[in-house]
Fold this sequence. Notes:
Number of strands: 41
Number of domains: 1
CATH superfamily: TonB-dependent receptor, beta-barrel domain
Radius of gyration: 25 Å
Strand content: over 45%
Distance between the termini: 23 Å
Structural class: mainly beta
Largest sheet: 24 strands, mixed
CATH architecture: Beta Barrel
Low-confidence stretches: 1-39
CATH class: Mainly Beta
CATH topology: Maltoporin, Chain A
Oligomer: single chain
Amino acid sequence: xxxxxxxxxxxxxxxxxxxxxxxxxxxxxxxxxxxxxxxxxxxxxxxxxxxxxxxxxxxxxxxxxxxxxxxxxxxxxxxxxxxxxxxxxxxxxxxxxxxxxxxxxxxxxxxxxxxxxxxxxxxxxxxxxxxxxxxxxxxxxxxxxxxxxxxxxxxxxxxxxxxxxxxxxxxxxxxxxxxxxxxxxxxxxxxxxxxxxxxxxxxxxxxxxxxxxxxxxxxxxxxxxxxxxxxxxxxxxxxxxxxxxxxxxxxxxxxxxxxxxxxxxxxxxxxxxxxxxxxxxxxxxxxxxxxxxxxxxxxxxxxxxxxxxxxxxxxxxxxxxxxxxxxxxxxxxxxxxxxxxxxxxxxxxxxxxxxxxxxxxxxxxxxxxxxxxxxxxxxxxxxxxxxxxxxxxxxxxxxxxxxxxxxxxxxxxxxxxxxxxxxxxxxxxxxxxxxxxxxxxxxxxxxxxxxxxxxxxxxxxxxxxxxxxxxxxxxxxxxxxxxxxxxxxxxxxxxxxxxxxxxxxxxxxxxxxxxxxxxxxxxxxxxxxxxxxxxxxxxxxxxxxxxxxxxxxxxxxxxxxxxxxxxxxxxxxxxxxxxxxxxxxxxxxxxxxxxxxxxxxxxxxxxxxxxxxxxxxxxxxxxxxxxxxxxxxxxxxxxxxxxxxxxxxxxxxxxxxxxxxxxxxxxxxxxxxxxxxxxxxxxxxxxxxxxxxxxxxxxxxxxxxxxxxxxxxxxxxxxxxxxx
Length: 724
C-alpha cells in the first residue's frame, strides 16, 4: 500500500460521496467514499455543491490534515495551510497564540481579520463585523479537513474580502461504540503537548470530544504560555432523514508576552525581550446547536445557532516610549512604573438557516441554495486603567478606566444562489445577498487629558451580487471564472474617539469592492493535481486618518475617513506531481513534489500613497515541498520563501513609528516525518532548520510595540496510540 492509498482510505473512513478509486487501488477498494471533494493527495477542491452550499465556479481548496507531515502540536500554519497559494501567514509565538492569523491576496493577516473564520460551519471570531479577530481555532490534531473559499465566499458566508476558512473537526468513528486516541509531543523551548480524544456510537446517539493541554517556555525570555482547549459533541440520529446535536468549544490560556523590538535590537539579537511584566489571558467559549433534515434525496434543510461568550484581558507595560523604552525600576520610587490594564468582553449569537433543492430544468439537474443569517453582538472594551507596579498577572486598577466603551452590532442577511446547468459540462451560477447592518458605539475615552464622549449609530443596507461560470472539458478538469462583490464594515476601533482635535467623518462609509477569478484546475489519473489561475481584487474606500483644515479658524485637525482605493492582482498556482506514480502506477512507493506559488501586485491607486504597495503585502510567496511515502513511512521537506513587504502604506524603510518600516524577504526550511504501525505512530521533525532570524509583523500596540520575531530552529517528537 502506498501513501496515496493511505490518504484515500483515510478519506473513506472520514465518511465522505462516491468516486471511483484509481486503477492501482481497485484490488483493495472498489469505491472510495468522498463527500463533496476530489483530491490526489492532501489537497483538493470541493464539488459543485455540498451540504446545501454551492461551490460551482468558485476558487476553493480543501486540505486533509491527517495526510500532512507537519508539527500539528503547535499548529504550524505554514506546514498545514502553506499549500494554499499566496497565503500570507503571521509567524510568531509571542502574541499570545501560536496561530496568529492568515490572509490571501495581500490583505492584512493579523488575527485573520479579513477572513470569515469558522469551525464546523459556524463563526468563531469575536464579532464578524465589528471585531472580526480570531483568537481561537481548534488544535490541528483535532481537525479532519480545512476548507477555503477565496473572495467569492461573500454570497453564502459573509462579506469578507479574504473569503472563508472553515476548520472541520474530526467526526464520530464509524460503527464503533468507543475509540480513544492519545497523542503526546515534546519539543524545543519547553514544549509539551498532550492531545486526547474519545468518540463512539450508542444506538441512535453518537459522541466525540477532545481535550488538549499545551505548555511552552517560549523562544524568547518572558514567553511562557499554557493552554487548555476542549471540544464536545453529542448527536441524536433520529432517522436517515433527521439528526440534531449540540457542540461546545472552550479555550483557556495564560501567556506572558516579551514585547516588540526596534530594528537595531532585532538585528543585534532577535531573542531579546524588552518586557517582563506583560500578560494576557483569554477564556473562550462557544456553544452551537444544529439540526439537519433531508425530506428527500434532492432536498436539505439545516439550522445552526451559536452563542459565543468570551473575553481577553491584558496587563502590560506597553506603548509609552515605543519598543526602545526600557521597563526598569524607577530609582526615585524604587518600583516599576504602573502597568496598563485592559479588558474586553464579547458576546454574540448567530443563527443561520439554509435550504437547498435539486431540480430538473430541461434535460439537466440544477441546484437552488438559499438561506438567512441573523446575528447580534455586544462588545465591552475597558482600558487605560492604571495597574499595579508588580510583575504578576493582576487586573486590579487605581482610579477610573482611561476608556470605557460599549459596542453593538445587529445583522440580518438573506442570500440565494442557483446552479443553472446549461449543458452536461457547463454551469452558470448567479447569486445575491442582501445585508442590513446596525452598529452602535457609546461611552467615553480620555484623550490628551480631556474626556471625549462617543454616541455613534450607523444603519445601512446594501446588496451584493456575484456570478460564477464553470466548464468541464474533461471528467476531472474544469475552467472556472467568477466575480463577486465584497465589503468590510466600519469596525469598532474606527468609531472610537482618537484625539482632542480629531473628528470622525459623519459620511464615513464601509469599504467596498469585488473579487474576481479565472483559473484551470483538475487531476490527471493519480499522479498530477493542479490549480492555476489569475485574480483581480478592487478594495475601495479604505479607512484611514488624514489632515484637514477648519474653514473658519484655519486650524489643522485630523479626521478619520475613507482615504484611498487599492487594487490587488496577480496569479495563484498549485501543482503537485507524483513522480513514481507517473512512471509506474502500481508502485508501492510515492515520491511527490508540490509547488504553491503566488505573485501579488497590491498597490494604492488613489490618495496620498498612490502607487505605494499595500502594507504587509508580499509580492511573491513560493512554497516547494518533496514528499516520500511507503505504506508505513511518510516524510516531507518544505521550502518556504516569502518576499519583502512594508509595515505601513508610506513604504518607509525605517521610522520611529513602531508599525512602519521594512519587512525583509525570508526563506525557511521545515522537515517532518511519521511512521505508522497498526494503531501506533511516531512523529518527529524540525522547523526552521537553518535557524533563520526573520519576522512577519510590526505592531503599534498588542503584542508589541515594534517587531515581533518569528521562532528560530526547533525540534519535536511525538507518539500517538489508538485504542478501541
